């Protein structure tokens, strides 16, 4: 993993100090001509076999070691604009290259960014094309080796991009730096083992980071949680020695004076499920893959990372982050199937399954959010395996009755490739959560599990407030390295929400 220092310019630099130079060529019929230009610029000579294989599509990379008086090494990469090419393919392409060279002794990397004109049909905006390029560098560079005894120390790497449009590229770099550093923060939290990230420690980590960004952080301990009658959060956390916390983050944009006009920033409440570990409680989960349940706080980390990035970006939107965090453990004090829990709203929940605990803590948080009277509420939670069964691991489930909110989140998802897919929130499903002994029960039965979970949450949201629920159980974790997010925790949701907030701010 590199310590990245990313800069750009429109003037070509002297190559003699470089460790590695990367030149991209687009397979558009000009490969032979452009290879000749590279030979001239770098004062090197490729064999006819190399050139012929490169042009004839048999290879997509040429590596030249130690050309005379120039960089230690040159990589010539071919980009194929075929049916598979899109923004995410490009991000993955850049990520793969970065990951491959991350183990090499490189101090100064020069990348010649292909002209935006070549890629206009694949990117709506020039700045987003450049941002995608930089995101690829960050994704390829990420690793989590904090607990390895023989981890490699982070090497400083200066990456210099040569581009045709320096102003737009610098804007893109600044934006990508902010967002991707937030993604790194989120992924680090998600990858932490639960013995190192209890509810109390999660609150401390997030609060410390918030202070750096000028974001206000307030933490309720178990006494304050009880005082506020958050019975759902209390019940779920009862079985653990590590007691629950309720984290509140607030970012307010600077007030700008405007002549003859008063404008008020939209107030958006972001709510994130923060189960630092979930055994399932008395309704114990199977042992296989239970270790992945350290990521059951993915929603919480994304809410924190998004607000930090928004503050750094100075987005013109008022954000409030609400994070209920607990451990779900079996013990003599744990809540049990058959229990009835009274929430902060006054509504009661029959506990049908203690492994459906996320919705129980979110009940208190969503009610708290509604009391703040925001313009919108968006919650994120690794809520159901049913959503993963329905949609797989590359897309989150989106539930809302507000078409405008759904449309904007969908568009931001398609742009950033933190994608969402709308599922029904019809009232036909309301009866699935009916209880004969309480206002609602916490499990809706076998069918439509992701939908019944969303319908459960709906009971605790003010119906006058536009609300969206994102079930991120699938895309928050990947079990192999096929994708540029690599194996394990992905940080899904930060890029989606930042793009969305920019759009509505």
From TrEMBL:
It catalyses: Release of an N-terminal amino acid, preferentially leucine, but not glutamic or aspartic acids; Release of an N-terminal amino acid, Xaa-|-Yaa-, in which Xaa is preferably Leu, but may be other amino acids including Pro although not Arg or Lys, and Yaa may be Pro. Amino acid amides and methyl esters are also readily hydrolyzed, but rates on arylamides are exceedingly low. GO terms for biological process: proteolysis. HAMAP family: Cytosol_peptidase_M17 (MF_00181). It comes from Ignavibacterium album. Its main location: cytoplasm. It comes from the Bacteria. This is Probable cytosol aminopeptidase. Belongs to the peptidase M17 family. Mn(2+) 1 binds at residues 278, 355, 357. It is an enzyme of class 3 (hydrolase). The active site is at 285, 359. Mn(2+) 2 binds at residues 273, 278, 296, 357. Presumably involved in the processing and regular turnover of intracellular proteins. Catalyzes the removal of unsubstituted N-terminal amino acids from various peptides. Keywords: Aminopeptidase, Cytoplasm, Hydrolase, Manganese, Metal-binding, Protease. InterPro entries: Leucine_aapep/pepB, Macro_dom-like, Peptidase_M17_C, Peptidase_M17_leu_NH2_pept. Binds 2 manganese ions per subunit. The gene is pepA. Residues 185-498 form the Cytosol aminopeptidase domain. GO terms for cellular component: cytoplasm. Its EC number is 3.4.11.1, 3.4.11.10. GO terms for molecular function: manganese ion binding; metalloaminopeptidase activity. Its cofactor is Mn(2+). It is found in: Cytoplasm.
